[in-house]
Amino acid sequence: MPRLKITCDGDPKDRRIKLKLLEILAPADVYANALYEANGGYIINASEKEVDTVLESAATQTLQSHGFYPILPPEIKARRTIICHKVEHTAFENTKNDIADEIENKQEWAKIQDAYKFPNNRNNTSGNTLKIQFETISMADKATKQGLRLFNKRKEKVKEKQEEKRVKSQSYSQAANHHNNANTFPTSATALNNNQTSKMMICYLHAHAMNIVNPGTFQKTLIDILQENNLPTVILPNNPPSQQIIQNMLPSETPQIMEPVTTNLATTTSAAEADLELSSDSEEEQETDEEEDTGLPEETTQQETLRQPPPLPELIESTSTHTVTRQHNHKETSQTPHATNNTDTEIAQTTPSVKQRKNQLRKTRQPEPKWTKRH
Fold first, then answer.
1. In which band, very low, low, confident or very high, does the pLDDT at 162 lie, cut at 50, 70 and 90?
2. Which of 149-153, 169-173, 202-206, 281-285 shows the lowest mean pLDDT across its residues?
3. 3-class state of residue 262 by DSSP
4. Does the domain at residues 3-72 carry the CATH identifier 3.30.70?
5. What residue spans carry the Polar residues bias annotation (predicted)?
6. Where are the domains of the chain?
7. CATH number of 77-164
8. CA neighbours closer than 13 Å in the CB half-sphere of residue 187
9. Which run of H or E residues covers position 112?
10. The predicted structure's pLDDT at residue 163
11. Mean pLDDT of all residues in the chain?
12. pLDDT at position 48
């Protein structure tokens, strides 16, 4: 919104001066709420059309006759001015006043406030450039769209062609540059982003769901919900197979078959038995070392071993083998209840006792050399 400044001869704080200014500006629809006091005058905050009406020649003369002097804002001056490039040489040879009069004579709607001729030098590459300032913005817009006729020559609407060329250059640069957004087609300026596509997909699904409940309302529901979310409307068949579409969109769930995992009990039990045998051998070696260190006879050590309870590894080993044989011979035990006792006796006969293992270790072990003390 442009800001128009109006200076005055008297004191801006004087109420009579302000009322007189409002009386002059009333035909331009400028009221007291848009008028503010400033240094040496007033400032008007109004629309572009209202400011343009105040700055017309007739209104400006009326203001100046009552001691008010409006200052043209730069944005309004730029909107009122057009630039004509490559004017015909026969028309460009005339003075700026002759050119302004010729434009007003040939175009009855045109009123020129100022005209300027750019000199033809090295900086002016286009040549024969003319700048014309009209009294209103609407006149400049009309001259841009229709063109100007002067000295039996017609100056076409060059400005519109330049604007079109600039827009094409911008669109080409947009297509040439790499876009970092999530558009599917980066060369298109009107491509939809992921947020809009997801919203449209939700609207379509909602329309299909409402069509299942109330058949025949798909198109109306879709248009209404797209308009409420400011999305582009799409015309689709009025009664689509909504139920089949939603069923096909849902993922199909197939039951997964769990295969049982089998383990070889024989291998696991044999590994456990081997660990137990190694632990029992290590304990027996420790016991033999303790006998040699103490120097007790063999009978006392045998009596102590008989008094002590049987070692834990042997019990674990027998129970583990007992459970394995039970698992493998479950049917046999159900038919003959005494089968487990027989297997236990067989295992007990095959496994050597602690005394036998000690004797074997003594036979295999070599006697250590005895050292004598020299006197």
1. very low
2. 169-173
3. coil
4. yes
5. 172-188, 317-326, 334-354
6. 3-72, 77-164, 195-248
7. 3.30.70.330
8. 3
9. strand 112-117
10. 41
11. 70
12. 79
